[in-house]
UniProtKB/TrEMBL annotation:
Record pathway: Amine and polyamine biosynthesis; spermine biosynthesis; spermine from spermidine: step 1/1
Keywords from the UniProt entry: Acetylation, Phosphoprotein, Polyamine biosynthesis, Transferase
Gene: sms
Catalytic activity: S-adenosyl 3-(methylsulfanyl)propylamine + spermidine = spermine + S-methyl-5'-thioadenosine + H(+)
Record-stated family: Belongs to the spermidine/spermine synthase family.
Domain PABS: 121-363
UniProt name for this protein: Spermine synthase
Source organism of this protein record: Echeneis naucrates (Live sharksucker)
């Protein structure tokens, strides 16, 4: 059984510090009614701290901080009586409002954090904020030679591809795909297109509709891979495009893109568009990436070399809040062997729950 833990929090911010001796006794009857036993702990002068342990392994931590904050933490198991626990929290909230009469500036009660559940619903944003998704099940999970691949089902976003714990793309995220192919401003008819990564098939499925001359997509792994999972579980994103590795105007090469790019440079191959949809973290079997920046610059350099003079290179950047990372990226563009210009666009990608930056790069 899923023995997850529910963690409730209730906070009272006060306009002035309170004396625990005048507030705590008034709360004890509530804990006693719940048959909870109290232990008071020594805090070395940092206010009052008590724990209450009750039936079914319930635990309450009551803390009166010396600087004017009262915090209550309640932990219980997933199968406990939730209504009873709500009543306990309601009673404590009501009683504290009376006891702290007029001293309360804010009461904050958060939804329960579910800890240790079978299905993890918490993923940080790129800038380190906590998001809780409405994920109810794991649809697919594999460890490829390069990364952990999960496809999770969300009620509002559909299936979500998560690579190494990083939300990559959901079936709701057509905005991402449209942004990384030029935001509807490009005409791909009769063009030569190179896609790096893009194993979810979204870019390929969209660009194919415009009847390009040829799309070459290079994705590093196949079996137990992104392609494998997405062609079964992300069909709203890729349609049936991943069912075959070759089509009228496309081919998917299951290879590391670094040697492929180097080969194209040697052969003098040219593309009208290069679309870089590799994961933000370097994945390659080539030994020369000392860091993410080295890898990014290597890919950029090689891509610009296979780009027609009038061609365009599209890629995702990062969260709009990560201004430092974006500036560093833009600095890399100054260091390429061929001078380039760029423009950027900020797009709201539904499942990211944050604004995302996309780049268009071209030769000067």
């Amino acid at each position: 059984p899923d023995m997850a833990l529910r963690h409730y929090t209730l906070d009272f911010s006060l306009s002035a510090a309170v004396d625990s001796a005048s507030t705590v006794p008034g709360l004890l009857s509530i804990f006693h009614e719940q048959e909870m036993t109290e232990t008071v702990h020594d805090t070395n002068g940092h206010g009052y701290l008590a724990t209450f342990v009750g039936k079914n392994g319930r635990l309450v931590i009551l803390r009166v901080h010396s600087h004017g904050l009262v915090t209550i933490d309640l932990q219980c198991y997933e199968d406990d009586n939730i209504a009873q626990l709500d009543n306990l929290l309601n009673a404590l909230e009501k009683k504290l409002k009376v006891l702290l009469n007029g001293n309360v500036t804010r009461v904050k009660r958060l939804p329960a954090l579910i800890r240790g559940a079978k299905v993890d619903r918490y993923w940080p944003t790129a800038d380190g904020r906590l998001i809780e998704y409405d994920i109810d099940r794991v649809v697919y999970e594999e460890d490829s030679a390069y990364q952990n691949i999960k496809i999770l089902h969300s009620q509002q976003f559909g299936n979500i591809l998560v690579l190494n714990g990083d939300v990559n793309l959901a079936e709701s995220d057509l905005a991402y795909t449209q942004a990384i192919i030029g935001g509807g401003k490009e005409n791909y008819a009769g063009k030569e297109v190179l896609i790096l990564g893009g194993g979810d098939g979204g870019i390929l499925a969209e660009v194919v509709k415009q009847k390009p001359k040829m799309i070459t997509m290079v994705e590093i792994s196949f079996m137990g891979s992104v392609i494998d999972g997405c062609r079964t579980h992300m069909r709203k994103t890729c349609g049936n495009i991943l069912d075959n590795l070759k089509g009228d105007c496309y081919q998917i090469l299951v290879e590391d893109c670094v040697p492929v790019l180097k080969k194209y440079v040697k052969e003098g191959r040219m593309f009208d568009y290069v679309i870089n949809d590799l994961t933000a973290v370097p994945i390659s079997t080539e030994p020369e990436e000392d860091s993410t920046w080295e890898f990014l610059r290597l890919i950029l350099d090689l891509s610009i070399k296979v780009l027609h003079p009038a061609g365009k290179y599209f890629t995702q950047g990062n969260s709009v809040n990560l201004t430092e990372a974006l500036s560093l990226y833009e600095e890399q563009l100054e260091k390429l062997s061929c001078p380039v210009d760029f423009s950027k666009e900020v797009v709201c990608v539904p499942s990211y729950l944050e604004l995302w930056v996309f780049y268009t790069i071209w030769k000067k």
